[in-house]
Amino acid sequence: MGKKNSSLTRVKPLGDEIIAKHALLGTLLSLVNANDIGDFKNDNVFYKGKEGVGKEKSLPPSPDHLLAIIKKIDSDEEFRDYIKKRVKSYTKGKKTLEKRIALCEKHSEKHSETMEQAIADIENKIPQTKPWWCKFEGDSQPDLFIENDKYIVLVEGKRTERSLTDYTSYLEHRSQMVRHIENTLYYIEENYGKNAKRVIAFYIVEKGCGYEDNCEKAYLEKYLNNELDVHETINKDGIKQAILDSFYGCTTWEAVSGDLRISFPD
Prior knowledge:
Elements: H1 6-20, H2 23-30, E1 45-47, H3 63-75, H4 77-90, H5 94-104, H6 111-123, H7 126-129, E2 144-147, E3 151-157, H8 176-191, E4 198-205, H9 217-230, H10 240-245, E5 247-252, H11 253-260
Parallel strand pairs: 3-4, 4-5
Antiparallel strand pairs: 1-2, 2-3
């Protein structure tokens, strides 16, 4: 996106100002009708270009989600054919490609053995520690991640994009915001215990972008239901409501600039 990259021209100035003036986070949260979370440490603020860090927080998908994709490959012929076509374009390394193709060819002598290995590797959380052959969804990286002892704030910023991101390399229906929230819920459970912290997630978009309505909770719920209907074996009944409860809609960069008194570059 070049000079108008939202991560550098919008999120970074916002993150820099919040680090310099912690009280601004409360003002930002008020724009989406969320309560102030209290204070936080600068080390627990992540965004691209942050001084001394320079990168976003990386949130791995849960083993349950990765396992559901593997099982869908095994049970759904249409999905299996779709994945097989995709792996040829997206897979690096001959051995990795061979294993992924074996997963997609039920008539192959290696199919059962490879499927068993994939399930075992995911259950042992091997894909969480390295890029792995059986990991069919990468980590999500929210533009701004702020954490304290009780809350995690997730912000996804958009500027020149024509629409929201609603797919991944291997899933045609997969909301970027759902991924951020779902992966954060898993992060919380793994590191602190289930429900140990609350998540506040929202978009910041340009006023008049044309898809503000798609940034509201009603649309996210509709899209999440559609995602689960299309991918029936990827069951999210246990966390669906938690995902929806964590989403606070959107605000605009214009509102952020005005209320937080931040001058963003063109």
